[in-house]
Amino acid sequence: MNLAIEASNIVDGGGLNHLRELLNQPEIATKEISKIVIWSSENTLKLIPDSTIVIKKTNPFLNSGKLKRFIWQLLYSKDEFKENAIDLVFVPGGIFLGSYSVPVISMSQNMLLYEWREMARYGFSSGFLRLFFLFFLQSYSFIRSKSILFLTEYAKNTITKKLRLNPDKSVVIPHGINDRFSESAHKPKTLAKKDSFDLLYVSFIGMYKHQWKVVEAISSLRDMGYDLKLTLVGNVVDTMAGNLLKASLEKYDPKREFVNHKLNIGYEEIHKEYKDADLFIYASSCENMPMILMEAMRSSLPILSSKMGPMPEILGEAGEYFDPTNATDLVKKIDLVLKSKERLGEMAEIAYQKSLAFTWKNTQKLTFSYFMKVYREF
Q1: Whole-number Å distance between alpha carbons of 158 and 223
Q2: Cα(85)–Cα(70) distance, rounded to whole angstroms?
């Protein structure tokens, strides 16, 4: 079977990391796929591992903006697939507008498009209009796809219901966790004896990430007598969210006595940030696959997590949950765990053990096996 990967909109972040792991020695993971042809930009392709069965292709359209990438999909992709004798097309970015005569499997990675409450946080802005436009493009792609690869049951249930898709024509295959996060694993028993705590929240500054609420909560806890410091790791990707965080810092920590905001830390270095943390906060209200939460689990940290989205599905009984839009609720939950510090070690150990189920080798094996299943059924 000859596989095409249409990765024209995979640029960075989790999408790129997934692609790199999926194509890490695929000739070992599968003997049934003869060749894998991936179309993307030059910048993306140079980050994809070389392989005896992977062929990298690009063109001027794929190295331009979204409009030209869509033109390539609409006018040229079918002929290029035919020239390369493609039997099945995988679209990790979830949007494919071209015509085709072979099965197409799309992957769902963007949950924000299907949760109107979260989109509404952007107000009537260019950001909202962009998301609204992408919702229609991706929904159109999903409806036309032979199958959809979801990352969590939460995403599958939400999207198939909203688009009235057949849930039987889909599969749930979660991402894996990079092994280097195990290097940051703590010895949880030491936490029970601590009086001061370093809290960590890793994520870009966006409207559904709620860092400003976390700052407010930590300030309240310090007023209650707790010796706490907070490290935020992540760049500002949304002006509105950046302004909310700035206002919160000016109100609750104008002298930067307890909040340290770190910028421009690349993914290859991010695991080092977990080493000095005692407690992890995850305050996102919208996720498809909460990779950062999973990486904190692999780092053996006790976790207080948002109760929204797929977070309870991933973390299970290993954490405490709170409403990320309510600082008071976070205050109560942190107060609760710090009053029973012996439980912190238990939370960390359970989280670490649960994280071991998420491996990239398993993701790779299940994904290629599913591709072959769809191909045989076509």
Answers
A1: 40
A2: 22
* pLDDT 10s digits, 97-116: 998 889 999 999 999 999 99
Whole-structure pTM over 0.90, yes or no?
A: yes
Cβ contact 282:209 at 8 Å: no
Span 134-148, pLDDT tens digits = 999 999 999 999 999
The CB density around residue 173, as the number of other CB atoms within 10 Å, is 18
* Domains with residue ranges and CATH for the chain: 2-176+359-377 (3.40.50.2000), 179-355 (3.40.50.2000)
